Amino acid sequence: MTAQRVGAVVLAAGKGTRFKSDRAKVLHQACGRSVLRWVLEALWPVGLSRVAVVVGHQGDDVAAEAAAAGLTGLVTVTQRDQLGTGHAARVALDSGALDGCDTVVVASGDLPLLTPGSLQALLDEHAAADRAATLLTARLDDASGYGRVVRGDDGQVTRVVEDRDAEPATRAIDEVNAGVYAFARQSLAAQLAQLSADTAQGEQYLTDVIEPLVDKGVGAVVGDAAVLQGVNDRAQLADAASTLRARLLRALMRDGVTVIDPAATYVDAGVTVAADATLQPGTLLEGATHVGAGADIGPHSHLTDTVVAEGASVHSSRCHGADIGPHVSVGPHSFLRPGARLAAHAEVGSFCEVKASDIGEGAKVAHLSYVGDATIGAQANVGAATVTVNYDGFAKHRTEIGPRARVGSDTMLVAPVRVGADAYTGAGSVITHDVPDGALAVERNEQATKPGYAERKRARAQRREGG
Ligand code: UD1
Ligand code: CA
Predict the structure, then answer these.
(1) CA angle 9-11-14, nearest 5°?
(2) Residue 273 pairs with which residues in a beta bridge?
(3) What is the CA(88)–ligand 1 centre distance, in A?
């Protein structure tokens, strides 16, 4: 037997009216990926030579999202008017993109829960029986909205009837068409050419090719309902996201990550977490985030595009574009912004904000400070409520704090300014000039102390009341 060439058509031209959104349905996100991207990622591993994504509504954006998946052999085909799923499939075949494929998988672009395993089962069954068409179906407790799979007395599939066109008896069928099919390409092309739009919606239904193909062999694979759930509105999108999230967390737990409460932990696709890390409740990990071995994240930490090295901890903090070194401690209640880089064993404690700054090995910024556009040397200590005054209203300026320097509490460091190695600043100082290595800079008035002040004040008040 010669190897079959398998291509796929992904139907993604519809608006998704039930989303009530300005954005095309397939561009909505679940766990950090668009619905379309989830479908493409599920299809690709089965070994496709071509994928044609049919775009229409917001076609340029959907085409760009498809291209972003970076799959070789992916093309987009435009369906100018959305005349139905059958018409969409026909536009794809007529484009010639799938010429040379023996088998064509057609899948709705709104099935983010599809898995490579479910598609492989469909393809295996299709190839083994040498049929014209094989459907993926599921049995649902609530089948409303789906096409029903009608079987004859012998159990063979005879046709698919859309919900809106179904008689009550057909509506009672609980086996639904999942919207994923394997077809012999030539049989599909021949039937699509015959489709009419004589349906409840005035659309050309892809499902109407099934009945005329029965003579050439139509079969079905009953799949897992959870995999075949479509997203037609935002409530279904949220349900799908929750299933995807559970899968992602399960995979992490199997790889050795402790997840204290999976129902309260949010990890996007593409995030990586090493073994023996712990994700506490209320943790959100997004984008290109990586968490190293043994790190402890949360409770209540939200990390985007952030790298956390081994043994670090991030408690109740927001980090975006930060690079957190080994055994660093962050939080509770701090905000690391893009370009915050913390070297090994550094500490950023509570109520601090750090942006575009390097904090050296073992350095401490423990309480209530703002560090922006700064370099802090190893083992330096930045006292509570220190502020790098980095912005003069026109440009940002840098602050440099040398190794082992001791910046007193409530120091204003008016940049550009440098505090030397081993130098000190006095608490409450406004530092506008560089402080040499090993020096102390104090900028504040002499303290005036007035003994007996409280006594005199009370006496004055009593005199006023008596008079
Ligand atoms: C479709 C099936 C239904 C099945 C269900 C499974 C048909 C007629 N019905 O119904 O049997 O149970 O999927 O989820 O196929 N699209 C286009 N161009 C169009 C119309 C639609 O590209 O002209 C795309 C949509 O963007 C969507 C997909 O096709 O991604 C399916 O369309 P949708 O309207 O969601 O079909 P359902 O009503 O869910
Ligand atoms: Ca649908």
Answers:
(1) 165
(2) 291
(3) 10
Using an 8 Å Cβ cutoff, are 318 and 305 in contact?
no
pLDDT digits (tens, 9 = 90+) for 300-341: 999 999 999 999 999 999 999 999 999 999 999 999 999 999
DSSP bridge partners of 363: none
Residue 19 per-residue DSSP state? G
The span from the CA of 410 to the CA of 414, in Å, is 12
Whether 320 sits among the annotated catalytic residues: the reply is no
Q: Give all domains of the chain, ordered by start, each with its CATH number.
A: 6-228 (3.90.550.10), 249-441 (2.160.10.10)
Q: Which two tokens stand for residue 219?
A: 């079969």
Ligand 1 atom closest to 146 (CA): 12
The rounded Å distance from CA 230 to ligand 1 centre is 9
User: What would the two tokens of residue 372 be?
Assistant: 């922006």
- 179-205 pLDDT, tens digit per residue, is 999 999 999 999 999 987 777 778 999
121-167 confidence digits (pLDDT tens): 999 999 999 899 999 999 999 999 999 999 999 999 999 999 999 99
DSSP 8-state symbol, 391? B
Rounded (10°) CA dihedral 91, 95, 96, 101: -40
